[in-house]
Design brief:
- The protein folds into 2 domains: about 5-90, Tyrosine recombinase, N-terminal domain (DNA polymerase, domain 1, Orthogonal Bundle); about 115-290, Intergrase catalytic core (hpI Integrase, Chain A, Orthogonal Bundle), CATH 1.10.443.
- It is built from 14 helices and 3 strands.
- It has helices at about 5-15, 20-45, 55-65, 70-90, 115-125, 130-145, 150-155, 185-195, 220-235, 245-255, 260-270, 275, 280-295, 300; strands at about 160-165, 170, 180.
- It has a 3-stranded antiparallel β-sheet.
- Strand 1 and strand 2 form a beta hairpin.
- The longest helix has 22 residues, at about 20-45.
- It is elongated, with a radius of gyration of 23 Å.
Amino acid sequence: MVLHEATKNFLIQLSVEKSASQHTLLAYQTALQQFAEFFEEMWECVPEIEMVTAEEIRPFLGWLHDKGLSKRSIKMKLAAVKSMFKFYVRSEVLAVNPADAIVSPKMEQTLPSFLQMKEAETLQFAFDVSTPKGARNNALCELLYGSGLRISEALQLNVGDVNASARTVRVLGKRNKERIVPVTESCISSVDHYLTVRKQLNPVAGERALFIGETGKRLISASAYRIVNTILKGITEARRKSPHVLRHSFATHLLDNGADLKSVSEMLGHSSLSTTQVYTHVSVERLKDAYKQAFPRAEEDEG
C-alpha cells in the first residue's frame, strides 16, 4: 500500500472510529503529508508503507529540524507517524512498527504564559457589551478565564449548558468525557446578558450553539482565536496571546490563591495530575521573583 493511500485510510479511521476532532485530524494530515514530502525530496519517490524502515524514518526528524520546526512540533509530527504505523500493525498489514525505535526529541520545559491578576481584572472591562458582538466576546472570555475551558470546549457549548442557578457549566472534554465546572458570578452575569442579545447575531433556525459566528452558525475556532488575541494585545505583555492563555491564567490564579492541585486538575479536565503540575512550577517561579524583589539579600543568599 503506497504511503499516500495508507495515510488516507488511516485518517478515515481516525475520523470515523476514533471520533477525532477536526484540529487533530488536520494536525495528523499535515504531519503525514510532510512525511510523504520528505521521501519525495530525499529519494524522489513515495514508498509502500510495508517498505518503510526505522533507518528511513530517523532522518525525517532532521529534515523537519532543517525546515525550522521546534522540538515540540517535531515531536508532534513523529507522534502522528507512530500512530499511523501502530494502526497498521493492529490491522495486521504490518508485522512491526518501524517507528517504535525512534526516540522523540527531548522537550525544553517552557512555563505557560498567563495574565497577571490585574490584567485579568482589566479583561472584564475590555469589551463594549452594549453591542451583540461585544457581549458575545465578553461572555466567551469570561468562560475561558472563569472556568478554565479549552477553546474547543467553549465553542461546543449549547444554550442551556450554563446553569445560572447552580453556577456551573456542563463541558464535553477530550475523549467525550463530561464534567461539571463551577463558574463565577461575573461569568453568569456576562452569559445572561449575552443571551438577551444573541438573537441579534441572526442564528440560523434551530441553531443550539451558545456562541454564534458571522454565518449565524456555531462560532469557529479561528474567529475565537482572533477575538481573544486582539483583546489580549491591549491588556498584557504575556508572550502568547491565545485562548489557552486564559485557561493557563485560570489554573495559575487558583493555585496562587490556595486551591489544591487535585481540584484544579478536575476542573481543567486533565486525565493526570502530572499534566496540571506545570502550574505549580509557575507559582514557584513567581514566588522566587517576589522573594528577590522583596528581600534585599536574596541575590546574595542564592550565591
